[in-house]
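Audit log entry. Action: structure prediction of a protein-small molecule complex. Ligand: zinc ion. The ligand was supplied as SMILES and no pocket hint was given, so placement is left entirely to the predictor. Protonation state taken as written. Sequence taken verbatim from the request; no trimming, no tag removal. Recorded inputs:
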Amino acid sequence: MAHRLVLKNFRLVDETMNRFGSVVVEDGRIRDLIPGPAPALSGGRVIDGGCLGSAGEPPALLPALVDLHAHFRDPGLAEKDAALPAETWVLQETWFLQETLESGSLAAAAGGYGTVVCMANTKPVIDTPEKAGLLKARSDALGLIDLYPALSLTRAMEGRELSGVRDLSRLPRSGPGTYVPRLLSEDGRDVAGDGIFLAALAEARRLGLPVSCHCDAGGAEAEAAKGAGQPREVWSRIEENQGTRRAIALGREAGCHIHIAHVSTGEAVALVRDCKKTVSPGNGPAFSLTCEAAPHHIALTGEDARRLGPESHGRVNPPLRTEADRRALIAGILDGTIDAIATDHAPHTQAGKAGGAPGFIGLETAFGVCFTELVREDGISLSRLSALMSAVPARILGLGGDRGRIAPGFRGDLFIADTAAARTVGAEPFKSRSRNSPFLGRELRGVVLMTIHGGRLVFNAPVGYT
Ligand SMILES: [Zn+2]
């Protein structure tokens, strides 16, 4: 007997569709798409959109989101949370995990995500196919999301010798027990030496894998600005702009796919836009360029950082920028320069944040933030948002034929959103073990009600959620 799930009476939205209808998922894959009011559909579990939405609007059914950039801190070490009274450390030995594979996966599912790339800057660093494969196997056993651990470019992210990326081309591409990463990245730092960076890019080219570049190699100019006592907002801008230039130049030289992580300055958006004009399929070797923006850079500015504490709860790399930069990101989204939205979900303890640890959690708020800012404020269509958060990132990972769309044969990875409802961030406890969200207390439109992974319900919002 096939495992069957019927989702009827929804607004079906993906990158090419926005219409009323129903979807039948069988054995983990979308089997049928039925436009218009649902006929009598029987067999299996039924979720009726007519019983879910608020304000008489049918809720939206969308392909599950795909995140190109998250930190699950697993494997890792617990931190003592200095925000808790010292006695509790002694008496109860209270140690706090910023995140685990389990909590990160629950947070992702609650945010509408079905596929997540987690970065390699854990303890130990994910720098061999074996370590990546172990993490992948643990995630598969949980079954909440599809996790694709990224592989670092250099061993222990020390920038000295290549990571196990060299061994990847010797591994079979599929089969039981094999895991080939879909993205390579040194995440929080650039590889400093051009020679070793190019060697890693040559491996990426051979494997046909994208390399996500953090872009913070600011060179002499950024060092000079730092030395002259300039504020972070000045030298970090030079770092991002120079780092972006360098990643594009080296990617061109190596002929591989460069993916620029968390673009945040107007200049970096312009660099990507100009570069894309010169790259066309079949033009030279396999150089291609994509980029992502993070919800916090799309929605917040340095004003918010000052309110939250620029060196504590408002701190993130790259920093929250100016309103002009924020508008440049939105212009980049509108004209297609920005390909994808990625969370850079970065859990930290309260003590860590107070001490200046950079980054925000984002998996549980990304859809609401983007729906509120882009769809409600800037008139971007829900279909375009679905492309930015689902179909395009799936294609960047080489999974475009498998997920990110609502069409027969695609995976039954879907989520239900009430686009008429609003929710205050933090009103429900986060699934993430951390709570370092810059959106705490904000009311966001567009509420994730349910998430379906491989045809099975993995998140169901509590009653009274909206
Ligand atoms: Zn990151």
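Audit: result stored. The radius of gyration is 22 Å. The chain has 14 helices and 18 strands.
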